Amino acid sequence: MAITVKRVSRHVEQTSYVKATLQGMASTLKQMFEPKVTIQYPEQRWELSPRWRGTHRMLTKEDGKARCVACGLCPSVCPSNCIKLVPGEDENGNRYPLVFEIDEFRCIFCGYCQEVCPEDAIHVGQHYENSEYSREGHVYDLERLMAQTHPVSTLWDATDPRGE
Ligand code: SF4
Ligand code: SF4
Hints:
Elements: H1 12-15, H2 18-31, E1 54-58, H3 73-77, E2 83-89, E3 95-103, H4 112-116, E4 122-125, E5 139-140, H5 142-147
Antiparallel strand pairs: 1-4, 2-3, 3-5
The structure holds iron/sulfur cluster (SF4) (2 copies).
One iron/sulfur cluster is lined by residues 77-80, 82-83, 102, 107-113, 124.
């Protein structure tokens, strides 16, 4: 069967880019007079929601030691398997973390560790500036977790689901 070519003729307003170009330029011009939504980071900072879940913090007791009692709940519940805990026990039988590390690179900031902690020890925090030059740099040990000073996150409240 012979192949034929069908010629379709369209009006110039259907094929010209001029109209679309002018519409695009008008849209750009309009945006120039709209309120700006960008900020000049890092001079200007984004105000975080109290529910923002970012870099972890380990809270401390009055004696400066970590509140963690090495119960093992947070590594058990962590869906990313990014918490390393090696428990220790002192001469009085009190448990404490010999090793406590969180890989912030693997963490998905779900906040489960904070939710399950019976000692109010580990928290996700209102902080996001934790860039590093290596993957290892994202592993926060106990000392580093205790040295964080940013505000901790407010967890979702079932009685106030929209945070109002
Ligand atoms: S926030 Fe979630 S993923 Fe991150 S360490 Fe805690 S439990 Fe694991
Ligand atoms: S849940 Fe709390 S007390 Fe238990 S191991 Fe984790 S940080 Fe420590």
